[in-house]
Amino acid sequence: MYKELALAAVKARGAAYAPYSGFKVGAALLAADGRVFTGCNIENSAFSPTVCAERVALFKAVSEGVREFKAIAVAGGKDGVVTTAPCGVCRQALAEFCGAEFKVLLVSCAEGRYEETALGKLLPCAFTEKDIRG
Ligand code: THU
């Protein structure tokens, strides 16, 4: 069902700039209006400015005024066979705009298959707007 989105993540991985870790990641974020925003990880010699593929895709979308999403596909890893789940920071960034049902597809680039999970499973008890407003 999300095969196209999975393939978009694999393609986005091609632009990854990861000379330090060699760990290339691509992401493809499906908006509620059907648009797809892609991202790749972008590393930095000072390390901490490094950004993950998922946040690049998310911030590209939000910066274009898009805030409603259905799913994200993530394709990453040194060999691209083993699937990669979004890091904790990316889970939190996604939780700002996406609910527990938001789909997360973990793509194996080499094998072309993906596992489907949900943000609520990856980040239970997310800290959200509700918590900060009291
Ligand atoms: N990375 C991502 O792009 N997404 C993740 O969910 C996990 C980690 C990147 C950051 C860094 O460039 C490299 O993978 C190794 O951590």
Form type: globular
Q: CATH topology, which one?
A: Cytidine Deaminase, domain 2
Tell me the CATH superfamily. Cytidine Deaminase, domain 2
Parts with pLDDT < 50 across at least 5 consecutive residues:
none
Number of structurally distinct domains:
1
Provide the β-strand percentage band: 25-35%
Number of strands: 5
Helix content: 25-40%
Q: What distance separates the N and C termini?
A: 38 Å
Provide the spatial order of strands within the biggest beta sheet: 2-1-3-4-5
Strand count, sense and closure of the main sheet? Answer: 5 strands, mixed
* Sequence of secondary-structure elements: HEEHEHEEHH
Query: Radius of gyration over alpha carbons?
Result: 14 Å
**CATH class call:** Alpha Beta
What is the second-level CATH architecture? 3-Layer(aba) Sandwich
Average pLDDT number: 95
Helix count? Answer: 5
Q: Decide which structural class fits the backbone.
A: alpha+beta
List of distinct ligands in this structure: tetrahydrodeoxyuridine
